[in-house]
Amino acid sequence: MAAKVEFQVPALRPYPYVPDLVPDSMKGKGPFVAKPDFQTPLGFPGPLVDNWQEVAIEKMGEMLKKYRSLRVYLDVCVRCGACTDKCHYFLGTRDPKNMPVARQDLLRQVYRRYFTLAGKFFPKLVGAKDLTKDVLDDWYNYFHQCSQCRRCSVFCPYGIDTADISMAAREIMDSIGLGQKYCNEIIGKVYKIGNNLGLPEPALRNTLEGLEEDIQTDIGVPVRFPIDEEGADILLVTPSADFFAEPHIDGLIGYAKVFHQAGMSWTLSSYASEAGNFGMFIGSYENMRQISLRIRKAALDLKVKRIVFGECGHAWRVAYSFLNTLAGPFDFLDPKYPVPQHICEVTLDLIKRGALKLDKTANDHRRITFHDSCNVARGSRMGDKPGGQFFIPREVIKASCNFFYDMPADTIHDQTFCCGGGGGLLTDDLIELRVKGALPRIEALKHVVDTHSVTNMASICAICKSQFTKVLPYYGFKMDMIVSVHQLVSTAIVL
Amino acid sequence: MVLTAIYAISFYLATLILIGGLAYKIIEYARTPAPLKVPTMPAPLTTGGVVVRMFEEVVFFKSLFRSHLKWTWLLGIMFHAALLVILLRHLRYFIEPVWWWVVLVQPFGKYGSFAMIVALLGLLGRRFLVERVNYISNPSDYLMLVLLLVIGASGTMTTFVAHTDIVQFKAFMLGVLYFDWQPLPADGPLLVHLAAVILLMVIFPFSKLLHAPGIFFSPSRNQVDNAREKRHLAPWALAKFETSRGTPPQPSV
What we know:
The complex is a heterodimer. Chain A contains 22 helices and seven strands. Chain A has helices at 36-39, 52-66, 68-76, 88-93, 100-115, 117-121, 123-126, 133-142, 151-155, 162-175, 181-192, 201-219, 248-262, 285-301, 313-327, 343-352, 374-379, 388-400, 431-437, 439-452, 462-471, 485-492, and strands at 234-237, 266-267, 306-309, 341-342, 368-370, 456-459, 482-484. In chain A, strand 6, helix 21 (462-471) and strand 7 form a beta-alpha-beta unit. The longest helix of chain A is centred in the middle third of the chain and has 19 residues, at 201-219. In chain B, helix 4 (70-90) packs antiparallel against helix 5. The radius of gyration of chain B is 23 Å and the shape is globular. The relative contact order of chain B is 0.16. Chains A and B meet through helix 2, helix 3, helix 5, helix 7 and helix 9 of A and helix 1, helix 3, helix 6, helix 7 and helix 11 of B.
C-alpha cells in the first residue's frame, strides 16, 4: 500500500440510507504488517511462519475451546441479514465484505471446513473454504476494516458480536506472524516506556509542569498536575494523548480543575501513564492482562485508595469490563468506591453534591452535541443503572452548557456509530477507510448542524477525538469542532 | 412392510442423531468458558434481568425487531409461531388419549400451516430479492427453506388435498414409539412429509438450526453486567495465571 492514498471522499447523504453493494471496493493489502521486531515483545512470531496454515488451524481449535463466544457465534448465524446495514464501514464503503455477517463468514468459512462435519463433507453447500493465501489476505484486509464497535451485535437476534470474531481472527494472525504494525508497535511502547505514544517520564513531567504554568498565567490559580505522588487518594489513568494532543489536553486540564476545586488528592503514574489497552484490539488476553497489571502495580506502589479513568473509550471498556478479571481483586483499595471509576462518574457526583461551581454561560458560544463512543456505549457502563454510560456524560455536559442537542435517535446511545478510527485502525495507512467509515456519524452530525446550528461535538474517547480532528476537514467541517467533555467543564468551572 | 420398516428405523436413527447431536453441542457450549464479561450493553444487572432479556429475545425477537428489517422480523415471527402451534398439534399423533389442550390447539395448528408456508415463501423470496441478503446466502440457506417448504406443503396436502388415513398413521407412530410396528399408510404426500422431517432431524445438529440452543449460550445476551462488583474468571485463566485460588496475581515488572 502506498503511503499516499488517493480516493474520493463520499458525498453526504440524507440519513438513513442503505447503499447498493460495490463488491471488492475495499479489497487491498490492508494496513502495514508488523516487522518481526514488533512481534517478539508481544510473544508472537514473525514474519509469517512457513507452516502458517497448520499453525492457524491449530490456534483456531485452541481458541474454540477457550472462548464460548467464538464457538457459539461461528455456529449459530442464520444469515437473516439484520446486521447487513449496521456497520459504518459498510455504509461508507459499500464493500459487501464489510457487512458484519460477511466479515464473520471470512472466519466462519474456515471454521466450517476444518471443524464441522457439514463443511468437511459438503463444503460448497455450506460455504466452507480451505484456508488459502487468498483467504488469509482477505482476513488481514477485512479484519482490519472492523473497529470492534459492536453495533452489529445490538441488532443480531443471537447477539453475535463481530468484534469478538475480528479479535479472534487478529489473534490467530498474530500467532502465525502476521501482526498489524500500528497495534503491535504501540503495545511494545507500553511495555518499554509505559504509554502508547512512547512519551518518556522526563517529557511527561515537563509537559505537566508546563500545564501548571500555563494555567497559573491564564487564570492565576495554582492547579496542580501531580505525578508519582505516593499516598495520593486517587490514581488517574488517562490516555497518553491527553498529555499533548488537541482537544484531549483540554480535557486533562478539565480533570485537574475538577480535582482542584473539589480538594481531592490525586496523582498520575509515570509507570502506568496509559489508559488505552491495545491488547483488546488484537484479541490477546495475555497482552491485555500484561497491560492491565501495570495499573495494578502503579496503584499498589503509589498506595492510592481509588482508581479513576480519564476520557478514553476502549480503555473504559477494558477498565470497566475486564480490569477486575485481568488484574483483580482490588481489595486493597477503598471499598466505598467502584473499581475503577470513570472521570464522568466522579465529576457528576461532585456536581450533584454542589462541590463544583459551574458557569454555563461561559460555554454560550458553543452549541453542543454528544458522540457516544462505541466501546463506552456498548461495552461498558457508568453509574449504578443500565444506560448510565449515556446519561452521565450528557448530564455533565448539560451542567456545563446551556445549548445541548442530541443527534438522531438511531445514531446515539447503544445505536451510536463508531467514529471510524477505533479498534486499532487509527493509523494513516488506513486513512481512506477512516474517512469513509466516519460517513454515517458525519451525516448524523450534519443533521444537527442543519437543524440546531450545532457548533461542536463532544466526546469522551481519545481515539474519537484524534479521528474526528483528522477526518472532519474531509467533509468540510473544522477540525476543532470536536471537543472533550471535560474541556466544556474546564470552560464552565469557576475557580 | 418394507416401507414401514424403512421409515420406522429411519425415525429411530434420526431421533438418536437429533438428541445425541444436540446434547453434544449443548454440552460443548456449556463446557466452553466465556473468559471475559462481554454482554452487549446496556445489560441487566441481575440474573433475573438476564432471564427477562432472554425471554424478550426468544419470544419476541427483540433485537431483530430493532433492525431496519421489519419484514424479516414479521416473517420470522410468523414462521416460528406457526411452527410452534403446528408442532403442538402434532403431539396428537404421539399420545393416546389426546390431552385437552392439544385438542384446543388443533384448528390453529391445522390452518397455521398456511401461515408457515407464506412466511417461508417470504423468507425465500428475500434471499433472491434483497441484494445484501442474496450476497450472504449459501446454497444451504436456500435448501433449508426449501426443505421446510416441502415439509409444510406435503403436510398440508395430507390434511387438505389427499386425505391420509390418519388413524392408521397414528397407529404407525405409536407402534414406532412402543416398538410394536404397525403398517404405515403408503400415501405419497405422507411419505414425502415424513422423509423430509427425518432429514430435518438429521441435519439439525450440524446446521445453522443450532441457533435454537445457541442463543441461550450467547455471552453478549446471557451475561449479567456486574464486572466491577464480581470478579469473573475462566478456569483456564485461573490455572494459567493465578497459581493458587484466592491469591491475587503478583504484578510483574
